[in-house]
Write a structure and sequence with these properties.
This protein has two domains: about 140 residues, Ribosomal Protein S5, domain 2, CATH 3.30.230.10; about 120 residues, GHMP kinase, C-terminal domain (Alpha-Beta Plaits), CATH 3.30.70. Helices cover about 40% and strands about 25% of the residues. Strands 1, 2, 3, 4, 5, 6 and 11 form a seven-stranded mixed sheet that branches. A four-stranded antiparallel sheet has the order 8-9-7-10. The chain has ten helices and eleven strands. With about 280 residues, the chain is of the alpha+beta class. It is globular, with a radius of gyration of 18 Å.
Length: about 280
């Protein structure tokens, strides 16, 4: 019997589209054992079955429990894919984290959530697929607002423009530089300059207007930075101890009971495996 857990992840963080992701301490846990055919016990839906069947490992009997909301922009599929792949690789020996990341990224079709859930922490994925660990200042605390409805990743991808104007590209590069430095130093001015993504958040606003409202509410309540989490509808906000109650309360009030607000720690472990 093998037990694996994988963290949630918040991708993009505004201007880091398909590049940045942060692992969060909301975890999916999976127990697995060899079996002649796939058998899923516990939390099961069509998305779970689809992800499990797509992972190129021998069949197993698995039991899945998860604190990660499904289809809300918190990397639930990447966490499940990573846990299943890790369990399958562990059946035949030690798990190489780099190999695991490559498998998960290939299955996901983009590498940001895959990198965060496998390695933990704040990560950037390079054009060549390499992963760089980045720093988050210890004074920064995360608040995540999760509306009750899902947003399909495929639908969110279809909403994106095929091309972006040069001015948009330049402003996005500037925002990304300020975001990375702001997260490293907790500099309020830098983080303020990182907001307002034009590549994916603006394009997706029609799909989930509430998400954009939550971003604005978080900033008004004292968040140093707030953005869509992945393709939404969840929002992630960064604040400090003195303002976290204000930010969380404002987000909860905006959801009006139709969703949840979490205050997860940054996960620095990534995938965890026990035999």
């Amino acid at each position: 019997m093998i037990r694996v857990s994988a963290p949630a992840s918040s991708a993009n963080l505004g201007p880091g589209f398909d590049v940045l992701a942060l692992a969060l301490d909301l975890r999916l846990t999976l127990t697995a054992e060899p079996f002649p055919d796939w058998e899923i016990i516990g939390e099961r839906d069509d998305a779970t079955a689809s992800v499990v069947s797509s992972v190129a490992v021998p069949p197993m009997r698995i039991e899945v429990t998860s604190d990660i909301p499904v289809g809300r922009g918190l990397g639930s599929s990447a966490a499940l894919r990573a846990a299943v792949a890790a369990a399958g690789l562990a059946m035949n020996g030690e798990v190489d984290r780099d190999e695991l990341f490559e498998r998960v990224a290939a299955g996901e079709g983009h590498a940001d959530n895959a990198a965060a859930t496998v390695y933990g922490g704040l990560v950037a994925v390079g054009a060549d697929g390499s992963v760089m660990r980045l720093a988050v200042h210890p004074s920064l605390l995360a608040v995540v607002a999760v509306p009750a409805y899902p947003v399909s990743t495929e639908r969110a991808r279809r909403a994106l423009p095929e091309e972006v104007a040069r001015g948009v590209a330049v402003r996005t590069a500037a925002r990304l530089a300020f975001l990375i430095e702001g997260l490293r130093t907790a500099d309020a001015v830098a983080l303020a300059a990182a907001g307002g993504d034009e590549i994916h958040e603006l394009a997706r606003e029609a799909i989930s207007p509430l998400t954009s409202d939550l971003v604005r509410v978080a900033r008004s309540a004292g968040a140093l930075h707030a953005s869509w989490s992945g393709a939404g509808p969840a929002v992630i906000a960064f604040t400090t101890e003195g303002r976290i109650d204000d930010v969380a309360g404002a987000l909860a009030a905006t959801l009006e009971g139709e969703g949840d607000v979490f205050e997860p720690e940054v996960d620095r472990l990534g995938i965890v495996l026990e035999r």
